[in-house]
Each structure stands twice: as C-alpha cells, then as structure tokens.
Amino acid sequence: MNKKEKLMEITQNLDMDRRTFLKSCGSLLVLMGLPFQLRDVFAADPTNATAIPDHVTLTWAGDPTTTQTITWRTNGTVTRGIVQFSQGMAGRVVAGNTQTASAITETLKSSLGDMSLHSVTLSGLRPGTTYSYRVGDGSSNWSAPVSFTTAQVGTSSFKFLVFGDSQSGNGSNPEYGPWRNNVHAAVAANPNARFLINVGDLTEEGQAYEHWNNWYDACKDIINIIPEMSCQGNHETYNMGWLPPSGATSEPYEYVHQFKVPQNGPNGLKGQTYSWDYGNVHFAVVDSQYDEEVTAETQVTRFPGTTFLDLQKNWLDNDLKSTKKLWKVVIFHKTPYYNKASRANEVIKAAFTPIIDKYHVDIVFNGHDHGISRTYPIKNDTFVSTPGAGTVYYVTGRSGNKYYTDLSKKVWDQFFYDSVDSPSYVVAEVNGSTLSLKAFKQNGALIDSYSISKATGRDTPATVLPAKYANTQVVVYGNEATDSASNPINAVQNGSTWYVPLNFVTVKYGTTSNLGVTGYTYNTASGQVTFTMGSTKYIFTVGSKVVSGVMTTLTNPITLQNEIPMIEVNDIKTVWGFTYKYDAAFNMLLLAK
C-alpha cells in the first residue's frame, strides 16, 4: 500500500478527510501527539512537493535569442514565485547585479493532490549570452543557482538531442532509472547541445503523478540548464480516473500545464501543437493522439465546427507555408512509417504526410515504436532517390525502460535497429547547409549515422532504392508476405481489379505477431478454405461470395489462380478492414489497417 492509499484508509476510518482532521486538531502539538502511524502519514505532502522549488524546467515560449521560460513547482503553501537572474558567472547569481521577475502561479492538480506551479518568461535578454538564475519565493526558499545561454542571432551551427519514449513500461512501477542513465550519458557526451526534444510517452501514465515525480527526478539537473522542447504521446493522455471526463484517456492535463511552450497552435490544442525557430531550422510539433483524445464530448466542446485532425492540418499547412527557414523538421509521436508488427497509424499518415510533402519537410521525428529506423526519402507515399526530393522519417528508439519484441525492418526502411538491448538517443547537428543525425546506444556505441546536404539535395550514405519486384509483391503491415515455405505471396490483376492469395492471413508480421490465424486448410476437392481467426471461424468456397461463420457477403466470388484461392482486394476491406495501395514504382500491393 502506498502512502496515498494509506492516508485514504486512515481518514476514511476516521470519517473525515485530511484537511478537516488537521483543522480540528488546531495545532502542531496535537499532531505530534498522534500515534506514530498517523504522524508519519500527515507529516509529508503526498505530492512530494515542498516549499523549496523543484521540477525546474527550461523551455521557450518565445524567441530563443532574447527570451527564456522557466517553470517550477512547490507545494500549495507557496503562492508567490520569483526568478533572480544576472548576466554571466555561470552557476552563480551575482550580488549587486541581480534582476528579478515575478512568476505566474497556478494550481497544478494531480492524482496525489494540489501543488503550486510557477512560470515566468524572461524577455529582453542578450543573444548568445549566459545568464545565472535561481527561483524561489523571494524569501528563504530558493533553488540552487544554475545558468542558461540564449541562442545566437542567425546561428547556422548547433546541436540538439532527440529522445524516444522514456516511459517506465509498468504503470504500477514508476521506474525511470534507464531514462536517468540515458539522458545523462547523452548530455555528458554532448555538453554543447542547445536543447532536448522528447518525442512523446515521457511517462507511462500521464495523469499518475508518481510517474512525473520520478521522470523529473531523473533529469532534474539537466532540464534546468538545457531547454526541453517536447512532444506528447498517447501515454500522456492516460487518465487514471481522477480527471474528467471519466475514462481511460483524456486531454494530457499534466503535460500541457507543466511544459510552457509557444502558444501559437490552434485553439483547443495550444501547448500540444506548436512551432518555434532555432537558427536556420523551423520546428513544428503536432498531436497524433486522435484515438485517445477524440470522443463525442470533446468533439463538441474542444473542436466545434471542425475536427481534431482538420484543425491541425490547417494549422500545419499555414505554419509550414509561413516559414522561410532553410530546414524544416516536424515532430509527432505516432509513426506513419512504423516498426511494430501490426500497429499501423493510417489515419495519422493520411492527415499529415500530404502537408509534409507539400512543403518538403526534411526530417520527421517519431517515437511510439521504441526501435530506431530511417526510411528512404518518401514523397506521395513512395520511395524517392534523394532527400532533395522527399522526406526522411526517423523513429527515434527508446530512452527509457520499455521495449518491444515484435519489431522488424519494413519495406520502407533504409535502416533499422531493434532497441531491445539498450536505451538510445539521437544527436542532431546542423552545420549550415548540412544536417546530420547520429543514433547512439546509452554506452556511446554508434548505431546509425546519416546526413543530408541541402546544397546538393543528396545524402550520406547515399540512398540506394530497392529493386522493383518482378511479380506484384503483397506487403502486409510493411512486411513482404511469404507463405509457409517462404515463397513470396504475389497479387494478380484481373482488369482493374486486384486479387490476393487468401493465405495472406497466415503471414507472420514481424518476429512474434500475426493475425492470429490457426488451422488454415484448403480442401481442393470441396473448394473450401477454412481457418479460425481469434474466436471466429471462416469458411470460404471457391466460386462463392458467401462466407460461412460470419455475417458477410463478398462483392466478388473466391477464384483460383494456379490452384491458389484468391480474394478480391476490396473484399479484404469488407471482411477485415484492410485498406490497400498499389505502388507502381516498386510493384507492391500494400495492405494495412
């Protein structure tokens, strides 16, 4: 039983809550006279917050050359926040040359109780200048003094770090030691990094504050000196029941309130969708959590007259249209070009990639899948020969405790690494017209190295496109489909209609997962194909549109091609919900849902 549960049990037995109890006691003397069990529970704030500032975080809500946003928390007794800062003298606030700024203080609600959150944006700073600062209540409770450095005007040479999912992997065990070790290793190896980007799933349960306490503790001596410009993931929406509306997921309340980023996103998604410039790069962040955040209620209250995705599509189109920066980078959590066995994100892909194509975004950073992968340059959902003609999608691995065992290299991946053995990070370095990406294990071992030259439109190592398939290859969830004897499963075309061998349902997608088909049989005498998927038994018959076992009728009958039962591709959508796309450049028929 944790301290919160212990407190609830005791106060329920007393038929009063903690505040009522303490008020009725009237004095600290009464508290000290309590039995040890009660004294232990009431002595500590269950949020772990005190009057001394912690969770001190740098972000930018404005121009990185002249502003710096600083946010921190205290317990709820502190209602005033002050920043003292001075130019120079890294690590010390200089007496006699100190400026002060007052913070905006708000109540931060949480699963553990209420806290005070303080935030201020310092403005009018000198570009390319180091400032020392400390935060506190203006009286006796202060953070240790540290320093930050503003961006130089017009810089075209800088480095930043990108981290995949840092979550613990276990909701009941907020373990962030791997994230601690990884972020410290990355910063130690790259002390000149100008900022950090987390691409979502910072925590395992975004509304369970034990996870945030441990996440902040793991990087507390880093994000107070290097700005954290993050993107939220689906786990930031996990509700835990205390935050309305009731349900498994909700708006990412804790995330939005704690990370003070530019408020230039669309109404209803400010703090979740935003953009900023650093040097010669434009960064845009969008929210990919369509499944978790959109309900009938939120559609009416948050997105009247539009939708979650349309709102962001319009914003992203205008945002990318407006920038004149040399490089464009887009960041969102869920992967349009994924590594998981059968977890596609087709709705997100359809929403964002046409706009990414339209304005030729150079790099898209994603998380969600916990592997490291780099696609071929892609435009219009097909591979192109140079990054000057398309966008590279980079899945950034895992920076925390959680890994998957069903990842694999997909047909769109020019590079793939399964991150089962170690957390990792990506070092991105801009040097004028060159952008380089290097992925490292936590121990410093190099995993991938890639660079793009804007001057030539080419990359290193140079893109080598795959050969066009001689026969139309069926690709399911990004994997080349093969039968039990490892022979390719090929589609055939009858007029304008595609047919796919019915045994595509038996294909293994990745290393451990498939569609769950058992007992697939084809009886040549009766013409029947029988198999069970999950708990449903399917019986198809050659020459028939009727599917026994399910309430489904096909548009076209099952046919034979070289004695193999074939199903028309639109009927695959009717029966199982798969959509398809034919890629003529590489002679692939791609299925996903």
Topology:
Elements: H1 3-13, H2 18-25, H3 28-32, H4 36-43, E1 54-59, E2 68-75, E3 82-87, E4 99-102, E5 104-108, E6 115-122, E7 130-136, E8 146-149, E9 157-163, H5 177-189, E10 196-198, H6 209-219, H7 253-258, E11 274-278, E12 281-285, H8 290-293, H9 296-302, H10 308-322, E13 327-331, H11 346-358, E14 363-366, E15 372-375, E16 378-379, E17 382-383, E18 392-396, E19 413-417, E20 424-431, E21 434-441, E22 446-453, E23 458-460, E24 473-476, E25 479-480, E26 492-494, E27 497-501, E28 517-523, E29 528-533, E30 536-541, E31 546-547, E32 552-553, E33 559-561, E34 564-568, H12 569-576, E35 579-583, E36 588-592
Parallel strand pairs: 9-10, 12-13, 13-14, 14-18, 24-36
Antiparallel strand pairs: 1-2, 2-6, 3-4, 3-7, 5-6, 7-8, 9-20, 11-12, 15-18, 15-19, 16-17, 20-21, 21-22, 22-23, 24-25, 26-27, 27-34, 28-29, 29-30, 31-32, 33-34, 35-36
Helix pairs in contact: 5-6, 10-11
**Count of β-strands:** 36
Q: In the residues, how many domains can be counted?
A: 4
| CATH architecture assignment of the largest domain | 4-Layer Sandwich
Report on the biggest sheet: 7 strands, mixed
Reported by name, the CATH topology of the largest domain is Purple Acid Phosphatase, chain A, domain 2
Strand content: 25-35%
User: What gyration radius follows from the Cα positions, in whole Å?
Assistant: 27 Å
Helix/strand class: alpha+beta
- Enumerate the spans where pLDDT stays under 50 for 5 or more consecutive residues: 1-43
CATH superfamily of the largest domain: Metallo-dependent phosphatases
Strand order of the largest sheet: 11-12-13-14-18-15-19
**Mean pLDDT, as a whole number?**
90
- Top CATH class of the largest domain: Alpha Beta
What's the total helix number? 12
Instruction: Indicate the percent of residues in helices.
Output: 10-25%
Which term fits the overall shape? elongated
How far the N terminus sits from the C terminus, by CA atoms, comes to 42 Å
